[in-house]
Structure formats: structure tokens, C-alpha cells
Amino acid sequence: MSLSYYQATVPVFVHTLDALSAILDKAAAFAEAKKVDPVVMCGLRLTADMLPLSRQVSTSCDFAKLCVARLSGVEAPKFNDDEKDFAELRSRIARTLEFIRSVPQADVEAGGGRVISLKIAGTQRELKPDDYLNFYALPNFFFHATTAYAILRANGVELSKKDYLGPLFD
């Protein structure tokens, strides 16, 4: 059985973004219980040269929406990267989910016939859809989602692997 472009993207993004939203709920509860300013928590980083939590979440959302948009040939919505607290980050996730769920499955499947053209580190690239999906979009999506989890976990939010894996493993 082969995995379609749609199966490899939309349900995967939905599942992980739903889990990330639930992780942010736990982080918000932690911030409230510990009396930590949510804006401060959203600015936390694993290390000084990495993006803060807020940008890890927004970048994960961007990889999801741009992957679906590029495969389907539709324009992705543009979001400001100005989220400062957990409610704004959950809203970013919700808007991303709304977009990727709105793209027809047939349009995503048509991505197999496209060349994906994008700039990576300032260089224009032309990628086959399989290479784009497997070696660029999905790894980056998971990198940023995982880093958001790790930032919160490293700063005391009680999270487990089950939180990251999401409701499929309840």
C-alpha cells in the first residue's frame, strides 16, 4: 500500500498541531499556577541562538501550511509573526488547521506532478515533490514542533512523550 501526498501531510499536520495546542494549554496552566508571565514563557529558548517558543510554534505552523499550499498549488494565507502569549499561539495553530483542512484532497494529491520551487537559505531550489516532502517540509515541521515541546519541558512544564504524540495514544 502506498501513502498518498494527502495522507502524508494533512492528517499528520492536524494530529501534531492538535497535540501542540494541547501542550500549550498545559503550558498556560503551568504559567498561571507558577505565576509566570505567559509573554516571558513564550520568549523562552533552548539556547541563545535558537528561536523562542513563540517562533518555534509559528514556524511549525508555517511549514504545515506552506507544504499543503505548495503541493496543492494554492496560495497559503499570510500570518503576522507577532504572537506573544499562549492564546495567540493557539489561535495561530487554529488558523493553520482551518487552512490545511480547507484544501481539497485532490488538490494535494496533484502535488505529485509539480516541481516545488522555493528559496532555501537564499538559494532558489527546484525540488521533486517527494524530496520536498520527505527531506525538507516534514523534517522542518517536526523539528520546530519538537523544539517547542523541549523548551517547555526544559522549563518545568510537566509534559510526557504521550503529550507530544497526541490523542492517538490515550
TrEMBL record:
InterPro entries given for it?
A: DinB/YfiT-like, DUF1993
Q: Which domain of life is it from?
A: Bacteria
Pfam families given for it? DUF1993 (PF09351)
> This chain belongs to which protein, by name?
DUF1993 domain-containing protein
Q: Which organism is it from?
A: Labrys neptuniae
